[in-house]
Design a protein that fits this description.
Structural class: mainly alpha
Shape: globular
Radius of gyration: 21 Å
Bound molecules: zinc ion
Number of strands: 4
Largest sheet: 2 strands, antiparallel
Strand order of the largest sheet: 1-4
Number of helices: 13
Helix content: 55-70%
């Protein structure tokens, strides 16, 4: 197949950036978000590793950092403690400086200790992906220079590595709590930006996701389309993905476990959700205590 149009035409290069960006967003949504963070789906180890590898090469993001920051966002959504809330910080701050909030959040050791359960901790993670997390994007830059030259190569590289900071940290975290419609009256300000989850692999359906964080499927109504769910269904056809939890429609409906292995994973999932519920309860109690400690003393009425 002749791929010279990528290196010889501007539209070929633009298409290359868009295709790479889409794969990066898809890996972020499927692997980091739906699988590792919320355990809604489990992928075949080869598929999981391929997505980890792609994210290392194209983003330099640490799985532990991403997971911890996002879990904390779910615990404190749009209240004090939320790492990136447009309600607290303004949508423009999150949209254009989302990375600043993301970095501040993962630099908190307490969050990293509390919210990273279940993250990969194998030899590759400990010896390559974590300690050399920026080596991937550097190798990508070298490859781009070899393919496109010293001017176009770094320009295309910028488009590739800024894809997630802009679309995920910026658009989803900023606009996903600012504009759009709501299917569910949840306590936070989350919204479905648009019903067509094509560009951001389904992450546009953010209100649906906040209502049912563990559901591997984000679309709920007939006119909503979740591209990530279609990828999961395709992998499922080939036995490369196992869905642990899915909620469809607007009713509180949980798909029945169909096979024995799924029953086991459902039980594990319920245990995990119970653990998260305990964290919520403990957090709420800690917040109440902190508020009580800082509240001004109520003046005692003078004795007559
Ligand atoms: Zn959110
Ligand atoms: Zn989430």
């Amino acid at each position: 197949m002749d791929l010279s149009f990528i290196t010889h035409t501007w539209w070929g290069a633009a298409l290359f950036i868009i295709v790479c960006g889409h794969i990066t967003i898809m890996c972020t949504s499927l692997y980091l978000h739906r699988s590792i963070t919320h355990a809604g789906v489990t992928f075949n180890p080869v598929i999981s590793f391929a997505m980890r590898m792609w994210l290392w090469f194209f983003t330099g993001m640490s799985t532990k950092h991403w997971v911890a920051v996002h879990r904390k966002h779910h615990v404190f959504t749009d209240t004090d403690g939320d790492p990136h809330s447009p309600v607290l910080n303004g949508w423009a701050q999150i949209m254009f400086f989302g990375v600043k909030y993301y970095r501040a959040a993962y630099q908190d050791p307490a969050s990293m200790a509390q919210y990273t359960t279940g993250c990969p901790d194998d030899w590759v993670e400990r010896h390559i992906f974590e300690p050399h997390k920026y080596t991937g994007p550097v190798l990508l830059l070298i490859l781009n220079v070899l393919l496109f030259g010293f001017i176009a190569g770094p320009a295309i590289w910028l488009g590739q590595v800024l894809w997630v900071p802009f679309w995920a940290a910026g658009v989803v975290n900023g606009l996903g709590h600012t504009i759009g419609y709501r299917n569910y009256k949840v306590k936070d300000a989350s919204r479905n930006i648009i019903p067509l989850g094509l560009l951001l692999s389904g992450e546009e359906l953010h209100n649906n996701h906040h209502k049912y964080p563990s559901s591997a499927k984000f679309s709920k109504r007939w006119f909503e389309f979740d591209m990530g769910w279609n990828y999961i269904q395709t992998l499922r056809l080939f036995g490369l993905a196992r869905v642990n939890m899915v909620q469809t429609g607007l009713a509180d409906f949980k798909e029945r476990a169909r096979v024995r292995s799924l029953v086991i994973s459902q039980a594990a999932l319920h245990a995990r959700e119970a653990a998260i519920e305990r964290v919520h309860t403990a957090t709420d109690a800690a917040k109440d205590m902190a508020q009580a400690a800082t509240a001004p003393a109520v003046a005692q009425p003078a004795k007559m």
